[in-house]
C-alpha cells in the first residue's frame, strides 16, 4: 500500500489534504502568474529547456498552464499532498496534457530523481520550509539540474505594504508563528525574511550567474486582482487559525476579532495594498 508522505512528515502549517486549501491554491496560482507577468517572464530564452520540475506544485496550476503553452516541454510537479497530486493528475488527463505528470514527493527529503535530470527547477512560494532544510533542498535542486540548467526560486515577503492595520497585524502574527516553528529567517520574527537569503542559498549550493527579478502586485480596492487577493487572504487566515493559536502568538477570541476587522478593512473603498515578490535564478555550471 502506498503511504502518504503528508501523514508521515508535514511541516506545512495547513492540512495539505484540505479541500479548502486546494481551492485557495488553484485561484492563487493564476493570480500570482499574472502578477509576475507570465510563466517564464524572467527566462526569455527557453530554447534549451525541455524538461522542467515544479517543487511544491500543489494542485498543479503552474505545471498545467505551462504544459498547455509549451507542448514540446516535459513538465513534472511534486507535492507532499496526495489529494493535490490526484487532482493535478486528473486535470492533466482531462485537458489531454500528455506532457504534464505529477507524483507525491516530500521536498524536505532527498528527491528520487537521477543527477542532471532537469533543465529548469522551479519553486514558487515554498519558503516556509524549516530553516535547516533549506540548504539540503537547494543542494538537491543543484544535483538534479542538468549542466547549464537553471533553478528559479520565487518568494514573497511579509508584511508587504497595506493600509489595513488588521491585515498587516495578521501577517506579522503569521511570521511570528513561523519563527516559533523554526520556519523563519527573521531574528525578530516580524517578517518571514526568506527573500534576502535566496541568493546566498543558491550560491552556497554551487550555482553561478545568479540574477534576480522583483515584482510588485497592487491589489488595492478597484484593481483587477483585489477580489482575488481578498478571497485568498480570508481563506488563508481562516485555515491558519489552528497554527496561529497552536503556536500561542494569539488566542482564539483575539483571532476572531482581528479576522473580522481584516475582512471589513479589505472591503473598504480606500483599501490599498501591494505584495512584493523576488525571483532569484541560478545556473549550474556547464563544466
Give an account of the 3D structure:
With 287 residues, the chain is α/β, with parallel strands linked by helices. It has one domain: Vaccinia Virus protein VP39 (Rossmann fold). 40% of the residues lie in helices and 22% in strands. It contains nine helices and seven strands; from the N terminus they run ααβαβαββαβααβααβ. It has a seven-stranded mixed β-sheet, with helices on both faces. Helix 4 links the parallel strand 2 and strand 3. Helix 6 crosses helix 9. The longest helix has 21 residues. The N and C termini lie far apart (42 Å). 38% of the residues are buried. The N terminus is likely disordered.
Please indicate the count of domains: 1
How many helices? The count is 9
Query: Major sheet: order of its strands?
Result: 3-2-1-4-5-7-6
Poorly predicted spans = 1-10
Q: Radius of gyration in whole Å, from Cα?
A: 19 Å
- Sheet-strand content, in percent, reads 15-25%
Mean pLDDT: 92
Q: Which word captures the global form? A: globular
CATH class wording: Alpha Beta
What is the rounded distance between the termini?
42 Å
Order of helices and strands: HHEHEHEEHEHHEHHE
Overall SS class: alpha/beta
Number of E-state strands: 7
Amino acid at each position: 500500500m502506498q503511504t502518504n508522505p503528508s501523514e508521515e512528515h508535514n511541516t506545512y502549517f495547513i492540512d495539505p489534504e484540505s479541500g479548502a486549501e486546494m481551492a485557495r491554491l488553484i485561484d492563487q496560482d493564476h493570480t500570482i502568474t499574472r502578477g509576475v507577468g507570465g510563466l517564464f517572464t524572467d527566462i526569455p530564452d527557453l530554447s534549451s529547456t525541455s524538461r522542467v520540475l515544479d517543487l511544491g506544485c500543489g494542485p498543479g496550476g503552474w505545471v498545467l498552464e505551462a504544459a498547455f503553452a509549451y507542448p514540446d516541454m516535459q513538465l513534472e510537479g511534486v507535492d507532499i499532498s496526495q489529494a493535490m497530486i490526484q487532482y493535478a493528475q486528473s486535470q492533466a488527463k482531462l485537458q489531454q496534457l500528455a506532457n504534464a505528470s505529477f507524483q507525491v514527493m516530500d521536498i524536505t527529503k532527498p528527491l528520487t530523481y537521477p543527477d542532471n535530470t532537469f533543465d529548469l527547477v522551479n519553486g514558487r512560494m515554498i519558503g516556509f520550509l524549516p530553516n535547516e532544510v533549506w540548504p539540503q533542498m537547494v543542494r538537491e535542486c543543484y544535483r538534479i539540474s542538468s549542466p547549464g540548467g537553471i533553478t528559479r526560486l520565487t518568494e514573497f515577503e511579509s508584511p508587504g505594504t497595506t493600509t489595513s492595520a488588521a491585515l498587516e497585524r495578521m501577517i506579522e502574527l503569521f511570521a511570528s508563528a513561523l519563527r516559533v516553528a523554526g520556519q523563519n529567517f527573521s531574528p525578530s520574527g516580524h517578517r518571514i525574511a526568506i527573500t534576502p537569503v535566496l541568493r546566498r542559498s543558491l550560491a552556497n549550493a554551487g550555482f553561478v550567474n545568479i540574477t534576480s527579478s522583483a515584482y510588485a502586485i497592487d491589489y488595492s480596492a478597484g484593481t483587477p486582482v483585489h477580489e482575488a487577493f481578498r478571497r485568498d487572504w480570508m481563506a488563508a487566515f481562516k485555515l491558519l487559525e489552528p497554527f496561529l493559536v497552536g503556536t500561542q502568538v494569539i488566542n482564539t477570541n483575539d483571532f476572531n476579532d482581528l479576522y473580522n476587522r481584516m475582512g471589513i478593512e479589505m472591503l473598504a473603498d480606500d483599501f490599498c495594498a501591494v505584495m512584493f515578490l523576488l525571483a532569484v535564478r541560478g545556473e549550474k555550471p556547464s563544466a
